[in-house]
């Protein structure tokens, strides 16, 4: 606390990211990174761009990347917004599109950055409880709302909502912005991007951090009607003209050109997820069906906090949220099969 702070700073409760340990040897299954490296085409493009041109500012509009994303998804550049990680894209969406007289709605169990943005931008919000199976029921979002946001698949549950449910919500709520945060959609769901041309109130946010193995590059994007994109651009250009650097623009663009690598690594993560889910179930865990690159599980006989601490002693880190309804769950990112095996071996000891 300091008397020099602007008043709002006293009220902020910042987001707490998962640990990025300094120790190299840990099996790191706590922040939903991809266990495989980025496409060789991405590394080659960045290597080539690592030259004297770095003295120049990058393209403030990152048109090369917008075009790569637009072509990939069968849209136009005007439908695309890019930012420094989807966290930044989401922050701009909260500021540009989600602050209205009526409250913003999002699930009670969801991405824990949402209430943080509400605090920063002073947005009135109401959380909507997931049902007992930790599912989103879109009927719960059909009442009075200023705007709506949720991840699909949801985080940290991993549960997927069918596209038909999202379309029903868009039909019932044509006058409010609906943001679908698809950070994990490439691991097993149908993207709402298919609905963008028909619903001008839909904004879909995605990231290159998970399925494209580029968490360290910080690139995310949003797709939606050009008027929604214009609102994001206005906020972005009132904040930072150059959120994506030259290396990020070329690396991210190259990622969309290597479909074979993208599909192969996603498929490997999906196969490991199914294998790990089965193995955890045989150890007595209740594992939620996941469409993401993590699983959310609880053990009826063991305290989740103690399990997380025990795993850490064995060199494996997973995420434990000390939050209502989920404090007995662990969120476990999908690693390589070898990393998942190391987790299972550690669990065998910790569960004894
Ligand atoms: C649901 C959800 N949305 C967005 C993000 C942000 O991803 P990034 O800022 O790396 O693009 C995350 C990160 O874990 C997430 O879980």
From TrEMBL:
UniProt keyword annotation of rRNA-binding present: no
Reaction equation(s) it catalyzes: L-histidinol phosphate + 2-oxoglutarate = 3-(imidazol-4-yl)-2-oxopropyl phosphate + L-glutamate
Top-rank taxon, per record: Bacteria
GO molecular function term, any single one: histidinol-phosphate transaminase activity
N6-(pyridoxal phosphate)lysine modified-residue sites: 210
InterPro entries: Aminotrans_II_pyridoxalP_BS, Aminotransferase_I/II_large, HisP_aminotrans, HistidinolP_aminotransfase, PyrdxlP-dep_Trfase, PyrdxlP-dep_Trfase_major, PyrdxlP-dep_Trfase_small
Cofactor requirements of the protein: pyridoxal 5'-phosphate
Pathway this chain belongs to: Amino-acid biosynthesis; L-histidine biosynthesis; L-histidine from 5-phospho-alpha-D-ribose 1-diphosphate: step 7/9
Entry keywords, A to Z: Amino-acid biosynthesis, Aminotransferase, Histidine biosynthesis, Pyridoxal phosphate, Transferase
EC number(s) given by UniProt: 2.6.1.9
Protein name listed in UniProt: Histidinol-phosphate aminotransferase
Organism expressing this protein natively: Jeongeupia naejangsanensis
Gene, per the UniProt record: hisC
